[in-house]
Structures are given as C-alpha cells and as structure tokens.
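pasting for the record
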Amino acid sequence: MGRMEIVYGVLVVLHLIGWAMVLGGALAGLRTATLTPGAFHGVLTALVTGILLVGLASSGVAGHEPNNVKVAVKLVVALVVTGLVVVARRRPEVVTSGYLGGVAGLTALNVAIAVLWR
C-alpha cells in the first residue's frame, strides 16, 4: 500500500466521521429542536474530505476511477445538507423536529448512495 493509498484511507475515515457527526447532531437535537454545533463542523469535514477523495480518485493516484454521475448526486445532496445546517446555525428559530428529520434523512440518503450505488 502506497503513501497516497494511506492518505486516501485516512480521508475516507474522516469523511465517514463527518457524516456521523451530522447524523448524530440532528438526531440528538430532535427532542429539543436544536442542531448541535458538532453538526456544522461535521458537514464541513464531510464536504471537504469528499471533494479531496474525488480529486485523488480522479487523478489516479489513489482509489479507483469515480462514477461521475454518482459523485454529482452525492454532491447535490451534500450541498443541500450543508445549506440546511448553515441556516440552522444562523437562524436557530427555524429549526423544528421535522427540519432535523430532513437533515438526518438526507444524511442517511447520502451514505446509502455511497454504499449501495455500484
């Protein structure tokens, strides 16, 4: 395993941790209708590491050639989740249990796309 494969693996782990932080932050706040601050950091981590992973895979230095349609769908979902989390951070009064359910559902959808779309 080369150095870039190790970097790629570390980025995958950080990417998954980022999405776990978003999902956990949304689910933890369902009862009180608040989004935890960790969700904001998690979504930024997931977004940045996802972009880096696609860059590494596309360049051929690590990973395998990405499915660009899958990447585009995942990016759109990730940007929607990022937007929802940023709005929730700036305007906490708009956050409801349904809002957090949407964040959690879209996060789960993004993970499902990553795992199930081959």
